[in-house]
Amino acid sequence: MLHSMRETIGMNKRAIGIWWRESPGMLVELIFYVITGAVLPYAGIYFSAQIITELAGAKNPVVLRNLVLLLLGIESLLGLIYHYFKNRYTVERNRMLEKLRYILSEKMLSLDFEKVDDAVIQDKVLQIEQINRWSRFGLCMVVFTLERMLQAIAGIAGALMLTVSFFQAKAVKSAFLWMNSPLFAIVFLAGILGFTTLASRIVERAQNMIAELSERATFGNRVWSFMAGMAGEREREQDIRVYEQIPAAMGLYEKNKVWGIGTEMDRLEKGKVGVLAAAANMTERLCSGLVYLLVCLKAYGGAFGIGAVTQYIGAVTALSHNLEEFLGAIGEVNTNREFLKKTFDFLDTPNDMYQGSLTVEKEMTVSTKWNLRMSASAIQAQTEKC
Fold first, then answer.
1. Measured between alpha carbons, how far is 80 from 82 in angstroms, rounded to an integer?
2. Angle 306-347/182-211 helices, nearest 10 degrees?
3. Residue 60 contacts by C-beta under 8 Å, 6 or more apart in sequence?
4. How far apart are CA 195 and CA 315, in angstroms?
5. Rg (Cα) of the chain, in Å, rounded?
6. pLDDT above 50 for 146
7. In whole angstroms, what is the distance from residue 337 CA to residue 221 CA?
8. CA distances (Å), 42 to each of 73, 74, 154, 160, 163, in order?
9. How many CB atoms are closer than 10 A to CB 357?
10. What is the mean pLDDT of residues 124-141?
11. pTM for the complete prediction?
């Protein structure tokens, strides 16, 4: 298992390196978009809590004005930066399929014609392109997973900064003194981690079930692509109409389609995958309910006021959500492993094409052999004379 984990990490590092080479701007924009996107909601949570605390307490108009201006200024500035980098990143991300074709074409051009003409090699390329068009698994999924993972890490960091004071606050009512114990903090965090881990594992299982349909789904897409364009091809028009080929073609498509009512995907969504999605959603809601309950109990125990309740509920709920997203991203990495392996299997195809000026080198080799033969003949002739 350790070897498998190292191999998976190595493949993802290599994939990120490929995207850095092909589109460094996309990854830089992703980092800035993720950082500003993580700070933005927490700024709102923190300043909203401060405003509510002030309204429930001293009601100082100067303090309220300053808090509101700070909130508006910070959210406006961060919002502009966030949307600028997000839009630039989205434009670059939408070109990933085009860049993937370039990566595959570059490899094909480096191969000898014998390899390029090999049906196995061509099938590998087609499978990679079809899987990416179907579900983005492979090289493209690495970028989506990286985005999800970075967002989760930034979100966890921000949530922890706003949550630390929750555990430091002390309840004063005797019935709630047990919430001041370090054991409460451990159980509280363990409960959140348990719920989020369970939810992410359920989602990962559902993703794996859908990923298992990849071969059937890509074949169904190939059938549909052929059938949809067949009627518009001039060389086929007469045969299609004379021999009434459309019903036969549609019959073949109906047997092999993956999407639509009554298909295998439909049965999965209504059955196992739908049940798993509902279970994951229910688990996440239970975790949110636990957070609301414990934060409100601690506030009722006199640990903090109404403004802090807003902050802690928002921060702890965000912590739970981002933990689930982080674990979900790890699950995506595991699901994508086999598809990434297929991509690298093609990119690692040995290049047997001779590198260099073959004609000149052959001439040099022939010339050297001819000179050696002439020298040997001359020595032999000289020996016979003696």
1. 5
2. 40
3. 54
4. 16
5. 32
6. yes
7. 22
8. 14, 11, 11, 11, 11
9. 10
10. 81
11. 0.75
